[in-house]
Amino acid sequence: MSVDPVLARIDSDLPASLDRLMELLRIPSISTDPAYKEDCDRAADWLVADLKSIGVDASKRETPGHPMVVGHVDGPGPHLLFYGHYDVQPVDPLELWDRDPFDPQIEDTPKGDVIRGRGTSDDKGQLMTFVEACRAWKAEHGTLPCKITFFFEGEEESGSPSLVPFLKENADELKADIALICDTGLYDSRVPAITTMLRGMLKQEITITGPSRDLHSGMYGGAAMNPIRVLAKIIAALHDDNGRVTVPGFYDGVHEISDELRDQWEALEFDHKAFLKDVGLSELAGEAGRSALEMIWARPTCEVNGIGGGYQGAGFKTVLPSKAHAKISFRLVGDQDPEAIDKSFRDMVHALLPRDCEVSFNSDGAAPASVMSIDNPAFETARNALSDEWPDEAAFIGSGGSIPVAGYFQSVLDTESMLIGFGKDDDQLHSPNEKYDVESFHKGTRSWARILDALSKG
Ligand SMILES: [Zn+2]
Q1: By the 8 A CB rule, do 96 and 432 touch?
Q2: E strand or H helix at 379, and its extent?
Q3: In terms of CB atoms within 10 Å, which of 196, 213, 276, 329 comes out highest?
Q4: Which of 146, 3, 152 has its CA nearest to residue 82?
């Protein structure tokens, strides 16, 4: 089976492919708002019907929340699990949209044609790149080059409450040789990317209590401990002068990136000056001696996300507050253990606490990082296939944010994930006027055809 006629068909079928995407985009499948429950259901039905039209044995599977869509099709190559989500974010503030978010349109812009509407980039447009690639294979060769399980979720934008139970219940059915997740972006418009490192997260809110009530600083100041002073000391102690986090054992499980990956990242010529200038800054603030991409993708962090205590209104009130609090989060990498770090962080806070103060912790969850083992040859195979389609060579990149589904595939299905997507930084995900470039959709579809071809040949 040759990929060339498949690519030619993708080109000639582009208008019809876009029409199908428009149909899906017109369904307002906002998962977080119960008012759109039927629409979520309709989007799932639409996908089942569309998969059936290309010979996939597909069905809608009920969950306590919105349904999953699962489909199977046989093929000679390895077993691939493809994941995307059909739900979308809410659209408000509606007045900031230039058009009805659920009446998508192709717009001719100075940067090229874009598909404008909610869900174009996140994630319906991306999901359909894979479906369209499969449709073209099927049309040309009567079959698909790999055995494929399609898996579409309808609750990704509302915290995926049904995902893990569903994966556990259907693990035997969903387990595959490798998972493909299409919900990420290109590195830039010339360089496609496979995201292989996703940072994890640990969140803690700490509240320091000193005196039993707010005090007048003229009467008590100097004699009574001020919890803001204690909190400031704790926060100041979290980093050393070289930008390293000082929580004992924090770097256990943090690995250096390989020389090969370091070379790839250097070749990206990331302009950290422009990156910082964009937000009014000029100097990197992370660990001394590390590159900006390393800081964002491969190194752990500790950040104070919010802080409060005492009088915050207009004017001045010489209060000595009873309480002070801060919201502190850690981004985790490699094999860092969220529970061990959480304990070590609490111990450190307790050790810095004066006898008269108390601390309480309010945890807001923790998840380890996911790191894909890129020595699995499928990664290099897919990277080469992507490089064939785009102007510049594809890169293995990291992501500062988290995509929990990759971690769940690993822990529940024991299936490694390749995160490949064609979104761009200016797609305005989750914001008004979301768009997806027609080029992303077209070349994304062609990319999947090439990846399927390459993976089928091993
Ligand atoms: Zn998404």
Answers
A1: yes
A2: helix 377-389
A3: 196
A4: 152
**Distance from the CA of 68 to the center of ligand 1, in angstroms?**
15
Determine how many CB atoms are found less than 10 A away from the CB of residue 262. 15
Å from CA of 97 to ligand 1 middle? 20
* Residue 180 CB partners (closer than 8 Å, separation 6+): 80, 81, 82, 83, 130, 417, 418, 420, 451
Given a contact cutoff of 8 angstroms between Cβ atoms, the answer to whether 196 and 98 are in contact is no
Q: How far is the CA of 430 from the centre of ligand 1 (A)?
A: 9
Distance CA 18, CA 280 (A): 39
Q: 223 is written with which tokens?
A: 């004699």
Place of tokens 């054992």: 249
Tokens of 138: 């099927």
CA–CA distance, 252 with 341 (Å, rounded to integer): 9
Question: CB within 5 A of ion ligand 1: which residues?
Answer: 122-123, 183
CA distance 451 to 449: 6
Ligand 1 midpoint to CA 237 (Å): 37
| pLDDT score of 364 | 86
Bond into 93 cis (ω within 30): yes
CA distance 247 to 332: 13
Share of the chain above pLDDT 90, in %: 95
CA 103 – CA 1 distance, rounded (Å): 38
pLDDT at 402 over 80: no
pLDDT band of 458, cuts 50, 70, 90? confident
Compute, in angstroms, the gap from residue 443 CA to the centroid of ligand 1.
19
pLDDT band at residue 421, thresholds of 50, 70 and 90? very high
> What does each C-alpha distance from 136 to 49, 221, 245, 418, 442 come to in angstroms?
17, 76, 51, 22, 12
Average pLDDT, the chain: 96
> What's the 78 CA to ligand 1 centre distance in angstroms?
26
